[in-house]
Amino acid sequence: MATITSCTTRESLLPSDDRPLNAPTIAIRSPSARPPETLAGRLIALLDAPCTPYETLDEGFARKERELGAMFAALAAGEARAMRFRLTACKAGDELANKFARLSLERRARLLVLLLENRGRPADDGV
User: Fold this and answer.
1) How far does Cα 112 stand from its chain's mean position?
2) CA-to-CA distance for 72 and 5, rounded, in angstroms?
């Protein structure tokens, strides 16, 4: 008869700080603090913006998707690739990637395809 000498439990697989593996970590910013004036800051502000009083939730999120799509379409090809990588990697503490991940699967997929297919504006040669 075989005896079990060790047992792996769910708890033994957790990191030492008791967070589940691959749990998203969201950077916390004071609600009164404005995002930085960068592309990421503008995207975060758009994702954080509430729906207008005259919009349903579906209309509000459809508007956000259109606005995100317009911002993504304005990126150069290299910027679009970098943004797609950032949004799919979803690193711990990346506020933009974590907020983007909260969109519905269908909206995220459409926006990521837009980034993938982005041929981009011509790169600025500094001339």
Assistant:
1) 10
2) 55
CB atoms within 10 A of CB 64: 18
User: 57: which residues sit within 8 A by CB, 6+ positions away?
Assistant: 51
How many CA atoms lie less than 13 Å away from 32 in the CB half-sphere? 0
pLDDT of 11-29, one tens digit each? 444 445 554 545 555 555 5
Residue of higher predicted confidence among 33 and 4: 33
**3-class DSSP assignment, residue 58:** helix
Return the half-sphere exposure (C-beta side, CA atoms, 13 A cut-off) of residue 40. 13
From CA 114, how far away is CA 15, in angstroms rounded? 36
Distances (CA, A) of 114 to 84, 108, 117, 119, 122: 9, 10, 5, 10, 17
